[in-house]
Write a structure and sequence with these properties.
The chain has 241 residues and is of the alpha/beta class. It has one domain: P-loop containing nucleotide triphosphate hydrolases (Rossmann fold, 3-Layer(aba) Sandwich). It contains eight helices and ten strands. The strands form two sheets. The chain has a six-stranded mixed β-sheet, sandwiched between helices. β1 and β2 form a beta hairpin.
Length: 241
């Protein structure tokens, strides 16, 4: 489904990604783990067309995404929930979630797509009429993911879905990701700590300084002391990630 090969990306003259290769298939949960600044967000933003690579390929369902604008990539079937969980504060929860279903042609009925989004995060049912500015960090995160899912993507990109939210909300986020995966969607997650990776993840990529240093099963990564050290400690130095 998604194939990234030898991806090289520069930001403001600095090399951020150095030959990254990864893949994700339908029904898989794939996680990218690395310290802050390792290049996780840059990978997701490059897939979505926000960053133009210096070299390498990004293919989705056998066709290149390079040179396409973000809205064109979204129409191809890729959804994105950024780390900032940007919701429209002046819109209600219901309006935020319904927003991507209006312009979309084809696919399932919009009412069905919205219902599926609420099924993924049942807690949002109780705050349908609440404004985006009145939501907690965890609620904004759920709305952001539900809104991306309502567009009926084949692949969903989630940047730090459990970062900075109340521990009480984390199980709801993880359960929602499991529900999305269970209906055959591919999910690609970026996380700064291996401990945040769901135990049902199919594959793990650990990156350091813009390079993949491990690719394989999460349990195998934990057995490698060097990989475990890098994937289990968050670097708090602000960088281009």
């Amino acid at each position: 489904m998604l194939s990234v090969r030898d991806l090289v990306v520069d930001i403001q003259g600095s090399r951020v990604l150095r030959g990254i290769s990864l893949e994700a298939h339908a029904g898989e949960l794939v996680c990218i783990v690395g310290r802050n600044g390792a290049g996780k967000t840059t990978i997701l933003r490059s897939i979505m067309g926000f960053r133009a690579p210096i070299s390498g390929t990004i293919d989705f369902e056998g066709k290149s995404l390079l040179g396409h604008k973000p809205f064109e990539i979204a129409r191809r079937g890729i959804g994105f929930s950024p780390e900032e969980s940007e919701v429209f504060g002046e819109l209600s929860v219901a309006e935020n979630i319904a927003l991507p279903t209006w312009p979309q042609a084809g696919g399932r009925n919009r009412v069905v797509r919205i219902a599926l989004a609420y099924k993924v995060f049942p807690a949002l049912e109780r705050c349908r009429t609440r404004g985006g500015q009145q939501l907690s960090g965890g609620e904004r995160k759920m709305v952001s993911i539900a809104r991306a899912f309502a567009a009926e993507p084949k692949l969903l990109l989630l940047d730090e879905p459990t970062e900075g939210i109340s521990p009480a909300i984390v199980p709801s986020i993880i359960d929602g990701i499991a529900s999305i995966r269970s209906v055959g969607r591919a999910v690609l997650i970026a996380e700064s700590n291996m401990h945040h990776v769901p135990d049902f993840a199919d594959r793990l990529y650990v990156i350091e300084r813009g390079e993949v240093i491990f690719s394989g099963a999460p349990q195998e990564a934990a057995k490698n002391p060097t990989v475990a050290r890098i994937a289990g400690a968050a670097d708090t130095v602000p960088t281009a990630d």
